[in-house]
DNA sequence: ACGGACATGTAACGAGTTACATGATTAT
DNA sequence: ATAATCATGTAACTCGTTACATGTCCGT
């Protein structure tokens, strides 16, 4: 049920197509949500059918037509209502931690490899969040103030990655000792 | 695909029924995985059908029969193989952060309420992880050493909650100022 | 009498993934 | 030529949630 509100939130900030949306998910909310383009299109169709979105087809020179979606009044009302509801609890699903939990099946070297691989991924994530954060800092201060809570969600993503990285480095040190 | 290995991991440590498993998920891996009892039963049936689990029915005095599952050799082999594979990337889905991202629809007071509600939940989680951690520390040192990597996953859960709580407290301070 | 713990399940649905499909433009 | 980017979609499947169903024992 949350994907639809993520879609409404981004389209509320700025209208766009399914394709745009997919990229914006990757660039601006990847620290707390992800979705495939198939999910986007399915959700856009539904939201449109339910009257929460308007759609205008824009022919483009040399490119396929673009279906630009924007919120209807009903869409804005639905979003404004939802943000006030208690949020459904998030479900944690971290396959890597299952592997570590079953780590007695791994040699010291194998455990080291597994953790290192994850560590690299999290360093890359931190890097991309920091770049996003810089882009935000260089944007219009009026927008920054309007969307300061959105900025705080990114700050949490950054802190979470730092915590993760520090933890993984600790594990590697222990695996390298004795 | 990961639930099945979470199930295999716990049954590898100690055999048990679907009902047992559900509670063990809540008590010992809730910091990185959760599943409903329906998922457990469905997965147990499949794993049994595929020959990765043995099942022995144990009649109990005054209680329903219990189907106790344990790993077959094929099950242990499948688990040992999987733990060495690169872990599938985790998907982050945090509905609460969508709400904050759309936080310009909230009054200062509403934002404060929303964050406070989440903060309480995370404090409760931290509390339960700390209790788990104490139980681990009071257990057999030989087991602690055998499963030290499992212990580290709990340490990460604790650090992650602390990061989260510090962040939320910061937001609340900002909402209370000016 | 009622709720909670114990114990296992079915059915229906919604969410998410994977594979496939189409077709134009731009850059190498 | 070949790959990448732009742009939208269908079909089939698995995973996860919600609701429903059954029945015993124990404590209050």
Point out poorly predicted stretches of chain A: none
Summarize the main sheet of chain A: 2 strands, antiparallel
Please give the oligomerization state of what you see.
Answer: homodimer
What does the overall shape of chain A look like? elongated
Q: What do these coordinates show?
A:
2 copies of one chain form a homodimer. Chain A is mainly α. Chain A has 2 domains: 3-83, Winged helix-like DNA-binding domain superfamily/Winged helix DNA-binding domain (Arc Repressor Mutant, subunit A), CATH 1.10.10; 95-176. Helices cover 66% and strands 10% of the residues of chain A. Chain A has 8 helices and 2 strands; from the N terminus they run H-H-H-E-E-H-H-H-H-H. In chain A, strands 1-2 form a two-stranded antiparallel ribbon. The longest helix of chain A is centred in the C-terminal third of the chain and has 30 residues, at 108-137. Chains A and B meet through helix 1, helix 4, helix 5, helix 6 and helix 8 of A and helix 1, helix 4, helix 5, helix 6 and helix 8 of B. The structure holds a DNA duplex (28 and 28 nucleotides).
């Amino acid at each position: 049920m949350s994907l639809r509100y993520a879609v409404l939130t981004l389209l509320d900030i700025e209208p766009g197509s399914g394709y745009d949306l997919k990229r914006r998910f990757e660039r601006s909310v990847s620290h707390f949500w992800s979705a495939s383009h198939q999910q986007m299109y399915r959700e856009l169709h539904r939201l449109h059918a339910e009257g929460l979105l308007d759609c205008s087809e824009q022919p483009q020179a040399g490119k396929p037509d673009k279906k630009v979606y924007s919120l209807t009044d009903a869409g804005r009302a639905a979003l404004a209502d939802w943000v006030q509801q208690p949020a459904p609890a998030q479900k944690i699903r971290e396959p890597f931690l299952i592997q570590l939990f079953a780590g007695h099946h791994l040699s010291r070297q194998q455990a080291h490899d597994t953790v290192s691989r994850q560590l690299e991924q999290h360093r890359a994530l931190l890097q991309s969040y920091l770049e996003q954060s810089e882009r935000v800092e260089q944007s219009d201060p009026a927008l920054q103030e309007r969307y300061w809570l959105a900025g705080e969600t990114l700050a949490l993503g950054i802190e979470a990655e730092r915590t993760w990285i520090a933890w993984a480095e600790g594990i590697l040190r222990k695996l390298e000792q004795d």
